[in-house]
């Protein structure tokens, strides 16, 4: 028989009060029930813990040695239980997210600010990266969930829609595109393009749009970082195709940013989770708040 929490709490109550009567009242047990708990603990440990007579209760030497040990165990257990309850109530916790850089720098901060207004003690860890990296971080459980711009065929992952992000054309004005009332895929095909590398979900959207239209892409430059693509646009090297959510896609100075017409340039944004895994309470609550935010 192993010692139980009830038995250990009963022993500590007697040790603190030096009285079965006071200890029984403190832990809301009858004296006979308290006596049973102490006897069962002594039997489980195979050692005498208390010397008791009609006038007093005294700890044995082993009993005195066990008091601080059992008190520490109970204190640590109480702290764990309290912590678990705090996590369940979303007052505490860490939300771990993998996210596309374009969203991590724009939409995500606003979402975190809104969430922490209600849950100020929740912490966040954000890992930003392209769609493949987001999926890998979720799969390996380095994060609780991911926000990605592409679906996945991995059977261990589940995706669900979150929002749509329209692609923009970023170019240096004056430019021939200034004369176009709308930016279409046909108007883009006449100009050299600055594209993100093939691992990015932005590039996947662009490639698929041109494939569906049966038009060639004239890619003069491929960039890994959006800031690099913007630098190339500033140098007049071409038109960059970037998501509207990206800070880099914002118009500034002579840079113009215009949405690209057509459904194929609306990039779907997905939540990526690992199948069969429950989210921590704080992460589950934050994901719910993400889903209820306006697109």
Describe the structure in your own words.
By secondary structure, the chain is of the alpha/beta class. The chain folds into three domains: 5-87, Orthogonal Bundle (Arc Repressor Mutant, subunit A), CATH 1.10.10; 94-161 and 269-292, 3-Layer(aba) Sandwich (D-Maltodextrin-Binding Protein, domain 2), CATH 3.40.190.10; 165-267, Periplasmic binding protein-like II (D-Maltodextrin-Binding Protein, domain 2), CATH 3.40.190. α1 (5-17) crosses α3 (31-45) and α2 (20-26) packs across α3. α9 links the parallel β7 and β8. The chain is 43% helix and 22% strand. The chain has helices spanning 5-17, 20-26, 31-45, 61-88, 101-104, 107-118, 131-139, 185-188, 201-213, 226-234, 281-292; strands spanning 50-52, 57-59, 94-99, 123-128, 145-148, 157-172, 193-196, 219-223, 239-243, 255-259, 266-274. The protein has eleven helices and eleven strands.
Following the backbone from N to C, one meets helices and strands in this order, namely: HHHEEHEHHEHEEHEHEHEEEH
Q: Please identify the top-level CATH class of the largest domain.
A: Alpha Beta
Query: What fraction strand?
Result: 15-25%
Largest sheet: 9 strands, mixed
Gap between N and C termini: 59 Å
Whole-number total of structural domains: 3
Mean pLDDT: 87
């Amino acid at each position: 028989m192993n010692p139980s929490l009830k038995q250990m709490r009963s022993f500590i109550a007697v040790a603190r009060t030096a009285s079965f009567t006071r200890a029984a009242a403190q832990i809301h047990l009858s004296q006979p029930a308290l006596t049973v708990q102490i006897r069962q603990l002594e039997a489980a440990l195979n050692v005498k813990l208390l010397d008791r007579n009609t006038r007093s209760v005294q700890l044995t030497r082993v009993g005195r040695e066990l008091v601080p040990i059992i008190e520490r165990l109970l204190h640590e257990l109480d702290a764990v239980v309290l912590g678990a309850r705090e996590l369940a109530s979303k007052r505490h916790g860490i939300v771990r997210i993998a996210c596309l850089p374009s969203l991590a720098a724009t939409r995500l901060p606003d979402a975190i600010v809104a969430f922490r207004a209600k849950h100020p003690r929740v912490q966040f860890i954000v890992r930003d990266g392209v769609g493949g990296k987001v999926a890998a971080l979720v799969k390996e459980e380095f994060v609780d969930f991911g926000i990605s711009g592409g679906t996945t065929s991995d059977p261990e992952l589940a995706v669900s829609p979150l929002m749509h992000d329209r692609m923009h054309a970023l170019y240096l004005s004056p430019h021939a595109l200034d004369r176009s009332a709308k930016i279409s895929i046909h108007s883009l095909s006449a100009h050299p393009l600055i594209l993100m590398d093939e691992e990015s979900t932005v590039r996947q959207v662009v490639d698929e749009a041109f494939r569906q239209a049966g038009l060639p892409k004239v890619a003069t430059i491929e960039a890994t970082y959006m800031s690099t693509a913007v630098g190339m646009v500033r140098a007049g090297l071409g038109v960059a195709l970037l998501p509207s959510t990206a800070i880099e896609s914002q118009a500034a100075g002579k840079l113009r940013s215009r949405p690209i017409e057509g459904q194929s340039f609306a990039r779907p944004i997905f939540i990526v989770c690992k199948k069969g895994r429950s989210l921590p309470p704080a992460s589950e609550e934050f994901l719910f708040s993400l889903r209820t935010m306006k697109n």
